[in-house]
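Reviewer comment 2.1 asked that we show a complete input and output for one of the modelled complexes. We chose the manganese (II) ion case, as it is the one discussed in the main text.
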Amino acid sequence: MFRKNGWTKERVEDKAVIFDFSENYKKFLDDGKTEREVVEISRKLAEENGFVHIENVETLKAGDKVYFINRNKNIVLSVIGEDDILKGINYIVSHIDSPRIDIKANPLYEELDLAYMKTHYYGGIKKYQWATIPLALHGVVILEDGTKVDLTIGECENDPILMIPDLLPHLWGKSQAERKAPEVFLGEELQILVGSMPMYLEECESKELIKTHILEILKSKYGFGEEDFVSAELQLVPAGKARDLGLDRSMVAGYGQDDRICAYTSLKAILDLKATPKRTVVCFLADKEETGSNGSTGLQSNYLEYFTTELILKVKGSFNAFDLQKTLWNSKALSSDVNVAMDPIFKGVHDPMNAAKLNNGIVITKYTGARGKSGTNDADAEFVAEIRNMLNKNDIVWQIGMLGKVDEGGGGTVAMFLAQKGIKTIDVGPALLSMHAPMEISSKLDVYETYRAYLAFYNL
Ligand code: MN
Ligand code: MN
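Response of the prediction step:
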C-alpha cells in the first residue's frame, strides 16, 4: 500500500497485534540506551534464539545461526542460506549509537559552591533541548589494570539524576535571549551539575571540598578515581522509560529511536526467521553513524569485510580474495535508518509530494545527501523496483521520503559506505517526528510495518 495512512479497516481490527509489538520495542529502548547496552541485550536475545558465537564454530552450513561482536559496540547476526554464499548476502544495516552528551576526560570541577562535570555532545543536537531535563549516566570505566566498571545511574526511581541547569527568564535578556537558536547553549555551557555538598575532612588540604566529596563517592560507591575518567566512556542520556504517546496510544515517545527502531525491528526479524532463508542473511548493528561512521566500529571500517570473509571461509572451507569481492558485489543491503516525518507546524521545510508522513508505513529513500545529492548512494532504479515489488507483494504499508526540500538542509546514512563495498544498497526505514531530540516520536503502525518489511527482505 503506497502513500496512504496505513490504518485500514483490517489493521484497525489488528490493533492489538500492532500495539503489542511495540511493548517489547519500548522495553528494548529502555534497556539499550548506549551502543554497548544494545550489543549486550542483542547478544542475550541471539543466544536465547539459538545463535552461537562465531568463535565456537569451525564450519557453517545452511540453517546455521551465528553472531559476531566487534569491540563491544557492534553485533552482527547471520543465518546461513540455502544458496551458495557467493551468490550474495542480504544485509540489513542499522546503527545503535544515538545523539547524547559525553563526559570529558578531565571533567570534574567546583565553582561557587557547586560541582560540575564538563561534556562534549555526540552527534547533531539542538543543544538547548538537553538542559533542565533529567539525565542518566551510562557507560564504562576501564581501570588501569583492565578491570571494567559498568555504570548506570539515574534510571531507577530511587537513583539520583543529573541535570544541565539553565538561566531563569527574568535575567536572560542580555546574555542568552539575544543569541541565535544554535547558540542558546554553547557546547562549553552544557555542563552537568553533579553535587553541592562539601565533605568535611579535617586533614584534607584541598579547598575543593565539594569536588572532593564527589570523588569520594565515586571511589567508595563505584571504585574509580579522578584519573580513571581518562579511560572511560560515560554518556548522559535522557533518564526514564519510553512511553505511549497520544490519547489513542498510537505513538511511541522515547530516546534513541534513531536508529534503534531499525535495530530492534531487524533484530526481531532475524530472530523470528522460521525456515532456512534462500540467501544468507545478516543483521548488522553498527556504531558511530551519528559522527560520520569513522572508527573501527563504524561502517567506514573493514569490519563488514572481516566478518563476511569469516562466513565465506567457514561455509566453503577455503577462501580466495575474489570470493569476498564476488559475494559483496552480488549482495543486497537495506541501509535501515530513520527518515523525517512531516511536521504540520513546520511544513515549509518539506516537499509534501516527496516527504514521509507518520502512519504511512516504511519509507523508501532512493537518495539522501544535500546540495545536489552530494554524499549519497542513489540506489539503482532496478533495485528500487525490486524492493517496491517486495513491499507490494507482502502487502506492506510503504511510502517515499526525503530529508527536506532541495537546498533546505539534508543528511546522510551509512548507505554510501555499503555501496562503496559493491553492495546494492537502498535506504529503507520508518519516519520520526522530533528526530535527534531527547524524546523522539514514532508510530506503532510504522514500527510493525518496518518489522514486516525486514522479515520480507530476509526471505527475498
Ligand atoms: Mn540514523
Ligand atoms: Mn541520526
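The chain has two domains: 9-98+255-458, 100-238. We note this here for comparison with the apo prediction described in Section 3.2.
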